[in-house]
Design goal:
2 copies of one chain form a homodimer. With 217 residues, chain A is an alpha/beta fold. Chain A has one domain: NAD(P)-binding Rossmann-like Domain (Rossmann fold). Helix content of chain A is 39%, strand content 22%. Chain A has 10 helices and 11 strands. Chain A has helices at 10-21, 36-45, 54-60, 70-80, 82-85, 115-122, 137-141, 160-171, 189-193, 196-206; strands at residues 2-6, 25-30, 49-53, 63-66, 89-92, 97-98, 106-107, 127-131, 153-157, 180-184, 212-216. Chain A has an 8-stranded mixed sheet with strand order 3-2-1-4-5-8-9-10, with helices on both faces. In chain A, α8 (160-171) links the parallel β9 and β10. In chain A, α3 crosses α4. The A-B interface holds A 101, 106-107, 110-112, 146-147, 150-151, 154, 181-184, 188, 190-192, 194-195, 197-202, 204-206, 208, 210-217 and B 101, 106-107, 110-112, 146-147, 150-151, 154, 181-184, 188, 190-192, 194-195, 197-202, 204-206, 208, 210-217. β11 (212-216) of chain A pairs antiparallel with β11 (212-216) of chain B.
Amino acid sequence: MKIAVLGTGMVGDVIATKLLSLGHSVMMGSRTNNNEKAAAWVAKSGAGAAQGTFADAAQFASIVFNCTKGLNTLDALTLAGAENLKGKILIDISNPLDFSKGMPPVLSIVNDNSLGEEIQKLFPDTKVVKTLNTLNCQLMVNPLLVNGGDHNIFISGNSAEAKAEVVTLLTSFAWKKENILDLGDITTARGTEQLLPLWVRLYGAYGSPMFQFKIVK
Amino acid sequence: MKIAVLGTGMVGDVIATKLLSLGHSVMMGSRTNNNEKAAAWVAKSGAGAAQGTFADAAQFASIVFNCTKGLNTLDALTLAGAENLKGKILIDISNPLDFSKGMPPVLSIVNDNSLGEEIQKLFPDTKVVKTLNTLNCQLMVNPLLVNGGDHNIFISGNSAEAKAEVVTLLTSFAWKKENILDLGDITTARGTEQLLPLWVRLYGAYGSPMFQFKIVK
C-alpha cells in the first residue's frame, strides 16, 4: 500500500519505519522538500522510502498518517491540501499538547472539542480515524513490549468502514483485534486526547513511558 | 473513626454504608438538617449512623469524604465551613461534570486547573486528597467485583502523610496498596478528572459501568 507519514519527528520515524518493514511504500512528508530529517530517514531506509512536501506525500498515498505535533497539525494538513486528502483515510495519532506554559503540558483544544474533530471539520471529505494517540510510539508499533501485548488502544471515527481498514492495518503491527476498542464517532476523540494529562503524570511517576492502559471487566 | 460523608446521592450512600460496615461512626451531611435521603439512610443503617448539615458533619468528623456532585462541591464545602474542615483530611471523590449541555457531560473545570486544586485553594488549612474519582461507586468500595481486584486507582495530594492515611483507609475497602498509584501533588488531579471523558465513553461502548483501568508495564 502507498502510505504517507506526515511529520519527521520520532513518532513519524517510528511509524514510517514500521510501515516500510511491512512492505508498504512510504513517503515521509514535511513542510519543505528535502527536509533534513526526512532525507536522513530515506537514506537509512532504502527501497520503498521516499520523502517530499506534505502535499507530495498526501497526493502519493492512499492512507495518510498524521504524525505532526498537535499544535502544527491543522497547518500541516492545510499544506497537504484538501484535494490530496479527499476520499482518503487520515489516521490521526497526534495530541494537541501545548508545552509553551511549561511542564506538564496543557491541551490547546479540550473538553467540548478535540483535535480529531477539528481535522474532520476542516476536511469533511476525508475519513479521519483517531487512534494510537494514548501511548509511546515504540509501543504503537510493537505492543508486545509490555504485558505480552495485552492492553488497549482506542479508535474513533465517523466511518465504520475506515475504522475497519485501520484495525486491519493495526493488526499488522501485532495489535490484537479485541484490544482495539471502538469508542464511536470522531467526537469520542475528546476522551482519548484528554487521557494525555493522566499519561504525562504516570510517565512522571514511573520515570518511563513504557506502560499502557488496559481496561478490565 | 468519626467520618463525615458529604452528599446524599448514590455515591454518598455507598461510601457511608461501607464505612459503617467497617465499624466507623458516620455522619451523612447535606444542605439541610433532616434531609429526606440522609434520614432514610440513618433509618436503614442503625447504630453508628447519623445525619446533619454539612457543617454538623464536618465538625463531627476527623476525616471528611466529599461525595457531593462536582458542580455543587465548592458551595457545599463552604457551607461545611473552613473552621470545621481545618487540619482535617478531605477525601475528594467528586468530578466537575457538567450535564447541562446534554450527554456526554463536559468538565466545568479542566486542563490548567482541577476541582481538587480549587478545593485546596479555598481551604488551605485542610489536607485535600483526591482519589476514587475514576470508577463506579460499587467498585470504589468493592474492587474485587472486577478482575479479582487487580486494577488501579490514583491518589493526588500535597500531604504525603494525609495520602498515607487515605491509603490505609482504602486498604480497608480491599484495595491492594500496590494498586493505588500516587501521582504526586494535588495538581495531578487534572489527570484523573480528565479521565472522566474517556470513562463516560467506555461506559457508552460497554453499556455498563463495571469496568476499570489497569496500568500494565
